[in-house]
Write a structure and sequence with these properties.
Strand order of the largest sheet: 2-1-3-10-4-11
Shape: elongated
Helix content: 40-55%
Largest sheet: 6 strands, mixed
Number of helices: 10
Distance between the termini: 69 Å
Strand content: 15-25%
Radius of gyration: 22 Å
CATH superfamily of the largest domain: Periplasmic binding protein-like II
Order of helices and strands: HEHEHEHEEEHEHEHEEHHEH
Length: 275
């Protein structure tokens, strides 16, 4: 009996220790995200950020993850979540549907923008984009509209390819092009530059594009919006504890920078033919 009571006490103590902290402001904020990974991994990546926000805002911030991009857009557009980590295209759709507002954009290797790049093998005879007509091409995720938009924007229509396929991740594309399974493919700049040393050559680079961002729903009040902006922009790359939070989200990130809706006009123009 004594041992059983001790077990119950120990269990109760552990549950108290693991219980989520409560904050002075009882109005909970829900944080959503595009599904870039399995839910368990996304939870691991975003939890340090929500804990930081809870402490800074003195307000509970909890995760409410979406199974896919469409659901993530729906959740922020309909104000079912208050904050969301979105792709550029997802933000534009959420802004159009539900007047979602930008808080900050991510910074990678010191840059608050990125480029998509068309690559070929180093020894490929292809020297210009128009020589891709009649060739095979590798894309990543079929839902990644911006990849297709950049290719079409470069001057090649999808129907011009002999074939094209979706291989999922950028490293899959890089490997497939490097071994000759495809004549060309599209990569994010960080991957393209890495594979330049492994036998790939950059054929075309897109204009500078705004990266992943943090947005809020239309129901978030102005004071909370200002507090959130301050919280994200206060994450200091020079602070080791802050860097743990930033790197948990993505190892390539250095922090967050101010942004505006006008910066997304370049994406609007690229995806216009697909609307």
């Amino acid at each position: 009996m004594k041992n059983r009571m001790l077990r119950y006490f120990t269990l109760g103590l552990s549950l108290m220790c693991c219980a989520p902290l409560t904050y002075a402001n009882e109005t909970e904020l829900l944080f959503g995200s595009v599904a870039m990974d399995i839910p368990a991994m996304m939870h691991k990546r975003l939890s340090p950020l929500t804990m930081y926000l809870s402490e800074v805002l003195n307000r509970t911030v909890s995760l409410r993850l979406s199974p896919n991009m469409g659901d993530a857009i729906h959740e922020i557009s309909n104000a079912n979540v208050d904050i969301a980590y979105l792709t550029p295209v997802a933000y534009l759709e959420a802004h159009k549907r539900g007047n979602a507002k930008l808080i900050a954009r991510t910074v990678t290797n010191g840059k608050a923008f990125f480029r998509l790049m068309i690559v070929v093998k180093q020894d490929s005879p292809i020297q210009s984009v128009n020589q891709l007509i009649g060739k095979s091409f590798a894309f990543g995720d079929q839902k990644a509209l911006l990849q297709r938009a950049v290719v079409v924007g470069s001057g090649v229509k999808l129907m011009d390819f002999e074939e094209y396929k979706y291989l999922g991740h950028y490293d899959n594309i890089a490997r497939a092009v490097s071994i000759g399974d495809f004549d060309a493919g599209i990569l994010k700049d960080t991957t393209a530059l890495k594979w330049e040393k492994k036998g790939l050559r950059i054929l075309y680079a897109s204009p500078a594009l705004p990266p992943y961002n943090i947005s809020v729903s239309s129901k978030v009040d102005d004071d909370t919006l200002k507090s959130l902006k301050k919280a994200f922009l206060s994450l200091d790359p020079g602070n080791p504890e802050h860097m743990k939070i930033i790197k948990a989200l993505d190892k390539k990130y250095d922090g967050f920078a101010p942004t505006s809706d006008a910066e997304y006009d370049v994406v609007r123009q690229l995806i216009k033919p697909f609307k």
